[in-house]
Known about the structure:
Elements: H1 30-33, E1 37-41, E2 44-49, E3 55-61, E4 68-69, H2 76-81, E5 91-92, E6 98-99, E7 103-106, E8 109-112, E9 123-124, E10 134-138, E11 142-149, E12 163-172, E13 175-184, E14 190-192, E15 195-196, E16 207-210, E17 214-218, E18 224-228, H3 231-238, E19 247-252, E20 257-262, E21 267-273, E22 279-284, E23 292-296, H4 309-312, E24 315-317, E25 322-333
Antiparallel strand pairs: 1-2, 2-3, 3-4, 5-15, 6-9, 7-8, 10-11, 11-12, 12-13, 13-25, 14-24, 16-20, 17-18, 17-19, 19-22, 20-21, 21-25, 22-23
Amino acid sequence: xxxxxxxxxxxxxxxxxxxxxxxxxxxxxxxxxxxxxxxxxxxxxxxxxxxxxxxxxxxxxxxxxxxxxxxxxxxxxxxxxxxxxxxxxxxxxxxxxxxxxxxxxxxxxxxxxxxxxxxxxxxxxxxxxxxxxxxxxxxxxxxxxxxxxxxxxxxxxxxxxxxxxxxxxxxxxxxxxxxxxxxxxxxxxxxxxxxxxxxxxxxxxxxxxxxxxxxxxxxxxxxxxxxxxxxxxxxxxxxxxxxxxxxxxxxxxxxxxxxxxxxxxxxxxxxxxxxxxxxxxxxxxxxxxxxxxxxxxxxxxxxxxxxxxxxxxxxxxxxxxxxxxxxxxxxxxx
Length: 334
């Protein structure tokens, strides 16, 4: 029996070429380009779409043969639909992945997030990706993006805690660095988790390398049932093909280093994360071109899931408390 069914929450995307200038044609559209922020450092480029959930639209390298895409670039349709789910990556706050039935109990009250998006039966990825982010300090190779959430009681399913978040996005040392931070602005404790949601080019030769300890098995709604062994754990340590399993699963207690490799193209991308990004999601559905390896601070449905803290993750931010942690993606070419 397989561990999960294909998630209905993540729309299929066309297979992206790993080296294609056509994927970036939207950069030549003045209307789209005017709303983007492009960072450069040497041959590396990172294109941000602040208005679309503070998302990353592309991360690539300029070469004489054309751009080499290190993340799956956005398609023009993503901009036309204003859909962060079709971007190269986007931030996840104030929780990652799903909350069962869009509700949970916290501090003696029921937090009801139902009704804010009829596409999904379960609350998905928090709310920061659904709103524009403001551009702050900016240079040629770095930018700060800011988001502040003020609860609105008239909005069905709105996150009921006030908070602010920041992304510091920078190209340096031949790598992409993203520092995520958040502060609880509410006058009461706030449950919290965060992460980023990168999509990678997926080919027949792609391999994922990561040292993980266990996998959260999931039900048909891609919600966790129990943590334990699975052949994917050993496969990831050896270098797993995205086609090996039908996955949309959390892995606990990883080493906070993962490498996505394209050995036939003689290149790889190493992702590193600081604590508390102690959990990793692999989304590699069968018969689908999508591939995500996501650094997150909490497992799916962490506010409802019963288990030891280091397996479930997430935290509670006290009033005024802040949290900050960094991620990086370093390309390697032979």
